[in-house]
Design goal:
single chain, 79 residues, 2 domains, 3-stranded antiparallel β-sheet
């Protein structure tokens, strides 16, 4: 947990450039199953509404796009 806290603190303090942050984002996206609601529905053989209302997928906005993360359940945490 100490490594995660250090990474999050570094990001929060604006110590990284936009280029470094985008590299982190690209790497993270290759490590997790993240997709748009429609894309996740197609890959899982479900409907977009089913993905949207399901608690089995964490939903988060990236830019103006709602994304679903497979393998992480929806919770009430603010991050």
């Amino acid at each position: 947990m100490n490594k995660l806290a250090n990474i999050l603190i570094t990001i929060d303090k604006d110590e990284l450039t936009v280029s470094e942050l985008s590299s982190i984002l690209e790497m993270v996206c290759t490590k997790i199953d993240i997709n748009t609601i429609s894309g996740m529905a197609r890959s899982e053989g479900k409907t977009p509404r089913g993905i949207r209302i399901s608690n089995q997928y964490k939903k988060t906005n990236i830019g103006c796009q709602l994304m679903a993360i497979n393998g992480v359940k929806e919770d009430s945490l603010p991050f």
